[in-house]
Amino acid sequence: MKKMLLIVLVLLSFGCGNEIKTFSDNDIIIDVRSSSEYKKEHIKNAQSLPLEEIEENISSVVKDKDAKIYVYCQSGTRSAIALTKLEELGYTNVENLGGISDKFELEGE
Fold first, then answer.
1. How many whole angstroms separate alpha carbon 26 and alpha carbon 31?
2. Which domains occur in the chain, in start order?
């Protein structure tokens, strides 16, 4: 019985994979999908910066190259490309959230 209780407690401490990702007020969340995809739904407080515009416009969105930046897209492919481009531009704290899904708090228009 003690062993079963211990297993349950360990599993609960790791969560069940259904946790909602939360962000701090200082985090910068960038949606690299198209503007029309962003308008349909997006992560709350995310900024739209389509992948094809990221190199040209990132400096107007993020001045501090050490700021925490999260990027995401529909499936994770474009956000992986965006992460690489941002790192090549000198951004040091970029994380790929992958594809938009129900693990994020979403907003739509």
1. 16
2. 18-107 (3.40.250.10)
